Amino acid sequence: MTSTLPPKSKPLPHGVYPPVISLYKSTPRQEIDLDASYKFFSHLIRGGVDGLVLAGTNAEAVLLSPEERKDLVKIAKKAASDLGRPELAVIAGISGQSTNESIRLAEDALSAGADFGLLLPPNYWAKAVTEYVILSFYRDVADATELPIVIYSFPAMCNGIDMNSDTLSELAHHPNIVGVKLTCGNAGKVTRLTQEYTHEQFSVYAGASDWLIPCLAGGGSGCVTGIANIFPKSVAKLYTLWNAGQIQEAKELQGLVAQAEKACKEGIAATKYAAFHFAGSAAGVNDPKAFWPRKPYTPCGNEKNAWVEKVMQHLVQIEQSLPDAV
């Protein structure tokens, strides 16, 4: 490591984080189902995840109201506390198109009990998003809140805005910016950033579990992955195997996880159907409509559902063979 940057006062813990899907009532307005959410959060925590990410892309964050976001944070904290895991990290999406909106979302998340905030770069007018705009945006939000900020790099959802490792390195020097989630899939950013910074200075996470081992091998700290909504024990086991030095076993499980994660690449509807089909019953949420996307978006058709089942089926036996963490 080459940086003399002091460690952050509250680093983001190592590990596996599901960007938790939002569950809705079977009503015309599809209100958030807080009871179902509590059950699903509890299921994931029992599965051994190291934290929960709320109001992210998989949660359909742009379709959630400010009050719904706060309610979900409160319910997640309650689920963790009730299971004896009050320290479990809850990361709230705070992405807004303006600095002011992002600060307001950060204040809301902090007041609801969130531990960290996950923040995309501004991207509506992509041509106006210069490096200066990105640096100013993140620094201004981080200055204005006590909520530690995790940068969210996802060019595919941000009009192609892609923050390079030099920009991320600049932001790492802010005392309230603690890490980055790389949904850009760029392993080079991992190795460059981890060469400069320790986990405590600035942590780096893969944005999917199909490259968890490459991220960890490059010095990264874990992953935020949609498939952990569906097979949390399997992804947690993959992380544990690598850290225990059981490299061959980890590589074998990594391949199986990567094959199954193809379905999550198909979008929110496919991910939510998989969560219902493979995890809904175990979580105690049996209404398939709870897992539908929020309107105007629609669930997958029968053909896509059958494909999702086929490409993920091989993880069922592994998931069922693993014990609950709590």
From TrEMBL:
<feature type="binding site">
    <location>
        <position position="224"/>
    </location>
    <ligand>
        <name>pyruvate</name>
    </ligand>
</feature>
<dbReference type="Pfam" id="PF00701">
    <property type="entry name" value="DHDPS"/>
</dbReference>
<dbReference type="InterPro" id="IPR002220">
    <property type="entry name" value="DapA-like"/>
</dbReference>
<keyword id="KW-0456">Lyase</keyword>
<dbReference type="InterPro" id="IPR013785">
    <property type="entry name" value="Aldolase_TIM"/>
</dbReference>
<feature type="active site" description="Proton donor/acceptor">
    <location>
        <position position="152"/>
    </location>
</feature>
<comment type="similarity">
    <text>Belongs to the DapA family.</text>
</comment>
<dbReference type="GO" id="GO:0008840">
    <property type="term" value="F:4-hydroxy-tetrahydrodipicolinate synthase activity"/>
</dbReference>
<protein>
    <recommendedName>
        <fullName>Dihydrodipicolinate synthase</fullName>
    </recommendedName>
</protein>
<feature type="active site" description="Schiff-base intermediate with substrate">
    <location>
        <position position="181"/>
    </location>
</feature>
